[in-house]
Design a protein that fits this description.
Elements: E1 3-10, E2 21-26, E3 41-50, E4 53-54, E5 58-59, E6 63-64, E7 70-77, E8 80-86, E9 92-99, E10 111-112, E11 116-117, E12 120-123, E13 132-141, E14 147-149, E15 153-157, E16 169-173, E17 179-183, E18 190-196, E19 207-209, H1 210-216, E20 218-219, E21 223-224, E22 229-232, E23 241-248, E24 251-254
């Protein structure tokens, strides 16, 4: 039965089976290499073996992994969008492009965002209630001095003036163990409710993303009985905090 030796070498083609790193000796005809560095040229080569016989070495053209940023987080506010990210390799340089109607497909598609750091950006003087699309590219220098770009990571956001907080919230225990809830209808956003039996991670007036709230609190399911009234139940008899928020375009103002 035939078997194969897979080699990898950085910066040049392997010349023989001792020139480079042996990744695997296998009878399979595929291999997933998840240990490469970013923005560096790698060459692969395969030698086929059948008993004592070995084939000539077959080498690939150079392959370069162009990693994208990770963990994109978008935080819109008044005429401003803040975006943060991680995973930027030392060998890469960030470029961010913005469009009003689609996610930029390549560098040069749309407007370049200038206020960019290695871990995020703050895009200011935008129009409220307008959706903006962004794509973050990483530029790498190739061995021949040219620039190669990553595929790009895209996101979007809608800047808006923060909505008003909910100033009145009243929960009352009923004989059947359920609760009624009354609240003040918020201005400029949607009322959403959460609960926790741990420490309060937010205080009144704080501004957070809806995703941040969902990550630290449990959503409270309300059965509406009116525009500003409803009912709910809790899992057990423990002490719980009920938190209300006014949410608009993914931004939550704690009431």
């Amino acid at each position: 039965e035939a078997s194969y030796v897979l080699l990898r070498k950085r910066g040049g083609k392997p010349l023989d089976e001792h020139d480079g790193e042996v990744l695997t000796r296998t009878a399979a005809t595929s291999y997933a290499d998840d240990t490469i560095g970013c923005g560096e040229p790698y060459y692969y080569a395969v030698i086929a073996r059948l008993g004592p016989l070995s084939s000539p070495l077959a080498a690939s053209e150079p392959v370069m992994a162009l990693f994208d940023v990770t963990d994109l987080k978008v935080s819109p506010s008044q005429r401003t969008i803040q975006i943060t990210w991680g995973g930027v390799p030392e060998t890469g340089k960030i470029e961010v492009w913005r469009c009003n109607d689609h996610a930029p497909q390549r560098p040069g598609d749309g407007d370049a965002v200038s206020n960019v750091a290695s871990s995020g950006l703050l895009d200011q003087n935008l129009h409220n209630d307008t959706k903006y699309f962004y794509t973050i590219f990483i530029a790498y220098k190739t061995a021949d001095g040219k620039t190669a770009y990553s595929q790009g990571a895209s996101c979007s956001g809608v800047p808006a003036s923060p909505p008003g907080p909910i100033d009145f919230l009243l929960a009352q225990l009923q004989a059947d163990g359920s609760f009624t809830l009354e609240w003040e209808q918020p201005e400029g956003g949607e009322a959403k409710f959460f609960y926790t039996n741990g420490d309060m991670p937010f205080k009144q007036g704080d501004i957070a993303t809806e995703a941040e709230m969902a990550a630290q609190l449990m959503p409270l399911q309300i059965t509406a009985t009116g525009e500003d009234t409803g009912s709910f139940t809790l899992p057990d008899d423990a002490m719980y905090h009920i938190i209300c928020a006014t949410v608009k375009n993914g931004t939550a103002v704690i009431g």
